[in-house]
Amino acid sequence: MWALAALGGSVLTELPTPALFESALQPISEDAVAEAVVCGPDVRRYVDRIRAAEEAGYTHVCLHQVGPEQEAFMEFCEREVLPAFARRSESRRERRAGPGVRRTPARAAKRARRS
Question: What b/e string do you get for 49-67 counting C-beta neighbours within 10 Å, with b at 16 or more?
Answer without folding.
Answer: ebeeeeeeeeeeeeeeeee
